[in-house]
Amino acid sequence: MSKKAKIITACAACAVALGLGSYVLLFNKNKEYILVPDNTKETVTAATEAAVELPDDWADKYGYSPSAAGMTARAKSLLRISKDIVGWVQLDNTMMDYPVVLDPGEVQENDPYYGPDYYVPDDYYLNHDIDRSYRMEGAIFADYCNFIGSDDTQLSDNLVLYGHAMWDGSMMGDLRKYRINPEFYYSSPFIKFSSNYGDYDYVIFTYLITPGSYNATDFHYWQMEDLNTEEDFNFYIDCCKRSQMIDTGVDVKYGDKLMTLSTCYADEDNSRFIVVARKLREGEVAGDLKTIQHTEAYNQAHKDKEEA
């Protein structure tokens, strides 16, 4: 499904208070590009909901996955703004510190929740804020095929998050720091994702530029949320590493949960810049690269370098 590039006009900056913190909405003055790849996914019909005023305790009764720990206080606050909110993503030394919404999939015309227009999957939050108001920067959103449940066993094998690459660094704009300066990785190798139920930490193991058109590549990362077999998992990792811009040496094996951040790179060839991370393993500590498990080849190379 092709989508046209969007032109961003000058707007003023504004901020919206969310009670448990601030969510800064920074508007860009420059041109912006599409960020969701063309794809051939079958569409799904999104569930609709009557546009009625919700009671204060609606989040507790909304039918989300039960959890012994319960829903976080922040989630209960944010879910009063939108039922699509599934978490929060944060990346050190960048402006990426935002709520995450789950794309609703196909939205039919005159939907009582999403509005009068028709939207194909992974399209609605390209230009809508988390409260469903029009916003040219859109929101940070998870692919409509992702599943984010009440614990880590109910997370998709690969969480694919999309966001515009704004020139001022907002949304996913600051991801360009990785490709501009390889040393930036070592100051910001960890991603924190907080679902509506708990916190998860990921370590970035690579980043790359890749085509975003279905017929231009066999690496259709936007269709690979479920890596159920070792073959599928290894194919994903191999595709990442064959085009990687940095060799971090971080060990990645079948069974690891992944996160892929996807933003635009160039509109001329519909390419994407993606940052790929894996969930921390037992014993690894967010903020401390020394605790992260690396490959044997990486460890040996560093040993040889130290002995030289």
Condensed summary:
By secondary structure, the protein is an alpha+beta fold. It has helices at residues 73-78, 176-180, 184-187, 230-242, 296-307; strands at 14-17, 22-25, 85-91, 97-102, 140-142, 158-162, 190-195, 199-211, 258-266, 271-279.
What does this structure look like?
- Helices cover 13% and strands 21% of the residues.
- It contains five helices and ten strands.
- It has an eight-stranded mixed beta barrel with strand order 3-4-5-6-9-10-8-7.
- It starts with 13 loop residues before the first strand and ends with a helix.
How are the secondary structure elements laid out?
Layout: E1 14-17, E2 22-25, H1 73-78, E3 85-91, E4 97-102, E5 140-142, E6 158-162, H2 176-180, H3 184-187, E7 190-195, E8 199-211, H4 230-242, E9 258-266, E10 271-279, H5 296-307
Parallel strand pairs: 4-5, 6-9
Antiparallel strand pairs: 1-2, 3-4, 3-7, 5-6, 7-8, 8-10, 9-10
What would the keywords be for this entry?
eight-stranded mixed beta barrel; disordered N terminus; two-stranded antiparallel sheet; globular; 5 helices
Outline type: globular
Q: How much β-strand is present in the residues? A: 15-25%
Strand order of the largest sheet: 3-4-5-6-9-10-8-7
Poorly predicted runs of 5 or more residues: 1-34, 40-52
Instruction: Tell me the major beta sheet.
Output: 8 strands, mixed, barrel
Evaluate the radius of gyration.
Answer: 19 Å
Which structural class do the helices and strands define? alpha+beta
Give helix and strand order, one letter per element, not per position. EEHEEEEHHEEHEEH
N- to C-terminal distance: 54 Å
* Quantity of strands, as a count: 10
Residue-averaged pLDDT, rounded? 83
Number of helices: 5
Q: Residue share in helices?
A: 10-25%
